[in-house]
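Changelog note: in this version the structure field was regenerated for every chain. One regenerated record is shown below for reference.
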Amino acid sequence: MSLILGLNAYHADSSACLVRDGELVYAVEEERLRRIKHWAGFPILSIRLCLESQGLAIENVDHIALNRNPRANAVKKLGYTIARKPSLRWLADRLRKTKQKSSVRDVLSSEFNQPCTGKIHHVEHHLAHLASAFFVSPFAKATAVSIDGFGDFASAAWGEGDDTTLSVDGEVYFPHSLGCLYEAFTQYLGFRQWGDEYKVMGLAPYGEVNCMDQLRRVVLLQEDGSYRLNLKYFRHHKENIQSGFYDGSPSTGTLFSPALEQLLGPARAEGESLGQHHKDIAASLQRIYEEALFNLLNAIYVKYGNENLALAGGCAMNSVANGKIYKNTPFKRVYVQSAAGDAGGAIGAAYTVWHKVLNETRRSPMPHAYWGPAFSSQDIVALLRQRKDEIGEAGCRMTEHADRSELSSRTAAAIAAGKVVGWFQGRMEWGPRALGNRSILGDPRRADMKDILNAKIKRRESFRPFAPSILREAVGDWFEQDDDVPFMMEVFQIRPEKRALIPAVCHVDGSGRLQTVHQETNPLYYQLILAFCSLTAVPLVLNTSFNENEPVVCRPEEALDCFLRTQMDVIVLEHYFVERQT
């Protein structure tokens, strides 16, 4: 038996996965366990869960793979450092961080109080991204592309995957980065928390694309498909930007320079109301990002001529752009795995070792995202008994439904009646999206459902859309594109004649960030949507993450806490149905 522990450590979205004999058996992000969004540091709790799930000790692990390699691009790093003439303080800070990151074996041996004997492998950041997309994809051969902020001195890489081999044939290096571009503008627009780029993506449809002349001075597209930033508008290339990626919530200092405010006007202060100018900048930013993405993808297609695309990196989370790839490039099939960002690098590092180091064969692809913790019926029963008085005081009634068909039908009827349902089932999702196991569900037909959810539970910006989970076979009838989107990583246009029927999941531009649901990979969620369809003739439900301004719930007690402190109407914990009495 060969055991590989894959890690994304000392960075945002820290995570761990376990690959046994080439098969992914467990994957979890540290934020779900620490209850801090995008938690950065060493993912010791995730590692413990990975091992405990298989009854293993750290001494049983043969290989430990990290999605970073301090030696990668060493010549380019050295040349840039010399040209930059850094201060001694800057060099000391970099050496301190490198030393902290290099003690993986010592940390594991200390935490588990036993020797960690597995071989340590440092996998270059973007190779790990490419591997995380291609090696678990359904493609025997594909073009692989990674785009993000920065990792191991690069911001993008591309190559070709063919069975068990994966090349890295081109890269874009520091300081030029589409991820840095989007993050800098996210900060400029007043969204300062790590990972807030999705807010700008949701805001963009409310604006007009009227700032392109200015943004084309900021982003310079190259004939070979690559891109460069006009560095006068940024600080990261010449200043020591303060950042925090150790044992807590990640953070990055201000990336844009005063020149950007001279170009576009004053940056929006955090909490300042959003004006039309801000919305226009968001729309223009999204457009220039898409231009750069398609410019790169089209050039890469010419190089390889393969119609299959495996896409990864933080920028692969831009589901709006992903949904336009078919219309703007020659690619015919796209695969973006559920943890496309840095968390997914843990899988990529593990599979790089499996194929590149151990020279092993390809195994099954990753058709679903349910790789995290699960909880038994006994766990649920014990929790409900322990909290029985509290549940009763909240005016709730509990019912057990051993028959899953009966459970699905009752839940579907509650959703159709306009109730907000917390849905907690099976293994937790891997990646940032709630995909039907840790979800809050609502009726997509209700125009007021977005306001209801924001008032009762989510308490988030009103411009952010909610997503539809749809039966796979119904996609072509409801969306203008018919494709499999199991991880909610693409946004498609809803057919014009259907938009008025599902206003709660139709964004202002007529789009929806869909999740396709398969009977084979999530039979209970599929059965629920099918039951809702039989009541309403609508084969989809509104799906949003089960949380309230916190990481998605992991454990049943977190789900119950969220239910009790909000105005959610129903919570379904495995086969227990808990409903507030009106």
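Spot check on this record: The first helix runs from residue 30 to 34. The chain is about 35% helix and 20% strand.
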